[in-house]
Write a structure and sequence with these properties.
Elements: H1 4-14, H2 20-27, H3 39-43, H4 61-72, H5 83-94, H6 97-117, H7 131-136, H8 145-166, H9 174-181, H10 188-199, H11 204-210, H12 214-225, H13 233-245, H14 250-260
Length: 263
C-alpha cells in the first residue's frame, strides 16, 4: 500500500494544477531556494545522505528521503553539480518512486525554512538547523521507526492540506476526483483512501490544529499554495483564512508567494 510520502510526491509531480510545474521550477531558481551559493546550497552544506535504517524501512519514509538526498548531495555532503536538477527531476517525475516523495518534502521544507529566516536567510549557516528541524524539513532521513512514522504522519497532513485547498472554490466533483486520483500511483486500499479524502467536506480547522509547530505550519501553507491556481476570490480568501489559522506573519506568507512565483 502506498504511503503518504509517495502520495505527496505523486500529487506534486503530477501537478494538481497546470501552474504547479512552473512554480516548482521557479522555486528551484535563485528567486526561490536555488542558485549557486543560494539558500538550499547553504542549508545542505553540512548534510550527508543517510542510508535507510532497517527498522524504518517498513514505513517507507527513510528510503524516500535517503534516496532524495543521495541524488542532491555528493559524497562530501555538499550540494553536487546538478543537484538542483536532480531534485527538480525527482519531483517533476524523473526520479524513482521513493525519491519523488522525499524530494517533495525536501522542497516544501526548504521553502518553509527560507520563508521563516526572512532577511537573515543570506547569512544562515547549516549549524543553526537542529536535527529535529532537519527531519521536519525532509533534509535528513529518519534514523529509527518512530521518526519514520513521524515523517509519514507529516506527509499525510501535507496531502490533506493540498486536498483541502483544492476544495476552496467548491466541492470537488467526480470528474475532478478521478483526474486527481489518476495522478497518484495507487491501487486498491490506497486509491480508495485517497478518493475518500477527496470526497470529504473541507476541514480547515483540523488542518490548522494538526500543524503542531511553526515550521510545519509554513510547510502546510506552501503545499496548499501548490495545490490551487489562486485565480479566484474564493481561493485567495481561503489562503488568507488558512494563514490566519496557522498564525503565519504576513512577511512569511509574502516570501513563500515570491519563492513560488505566485502574485
Amino acid at each position: 500500500m502506498a504511503g503518504a510520502l509517495d502520495i505527496l510526491g505523486s500529487l506534486l509531480s503530477g501537478g494538481m494544477t497546470k501552474s504547479a510545474p512552473g512554480r516548482i521550477e521557479h522555486s528551484l531558481s535563485e528567486k526561490g531556494v536555488g542558485g549557486q551559493g543560494g539558500f538550499l546550497d547553504q542549508i545542505l552544506g553540512g548534510v550527508r545522505p543517510q542510508a535507510a535504517p532497517p527498522q524504518a524501512q517498513n514505513v517507507g519514509a527513510a528510503s524516500g528521503l535517503g534516496g532524495a538526498l543521495g541524488s542532491i548531495l555528493g559524497d562530501s555532503g555538499t550540494l553536487k553539480v546538478g543537484g538542483l536538477g536532480a531534485l527538480a527531476g525527482a519531483i517533476l517525475g524523473g526520479g524513482a518512486k521513493g525519491a519523488i516523495g522525499g524530494g517533495a518534502l525536501a522542497l516544501l521544507g526548504s521553502l518553509a525554512l527560507k520563508a521563516m529566516q526572512g532577511a537573515r536567510a543570506g547569512q544562515m549557516q547549516h549549524q543553526q538547523i537542529d536535527p529535529a528541524a532537519q527531519l521536519v524539513a525532509g533534509l535528513r532521513a529518519p534514523s529509527n521507526q518512530q521518526e519514520g512514522m513521524q515523517v509519514e504522519s507529516q506527509a499525510e497532513l501535507l496531502v490533506d492540506a493540498m486536498i483541502n485547498a483544492a476544495k476552496a472554490d467548491g466541492q470537488i466533483d467526480q470528474q475532478e476526483i478521478e483526474r486527481i486520483a489518476t495522478k497518484v500511483e495507487t491501487t486498491g486500499d490506497s486509491r480508495e483512501r485517497l478518493i475518500e479524502k477527496l470526497r470529504k467536506p473541507m476541514d480547515t480547522d483540523r488542518i490548522a490544529r494538526s500543524a503542531t509547530s511553526p515550521q510545519l505550519a509554513v510547510q502546510v501553507y506552501a503545499a496548499s499554495l501548490l495545490a490551487i491556481e489562486v485565480d479566484t476570490e474564493a481561493e485567495k480568501q481561503y489562503l488568507a483564512d488558512l494563514a490566519g489559522r496557522l498564525r503565519l506573519d504576513p512577511g512569511t506568507v509574502q516570501r513563500l508567494h515570491a519563492a513560488l512565483g505566485v502574485a
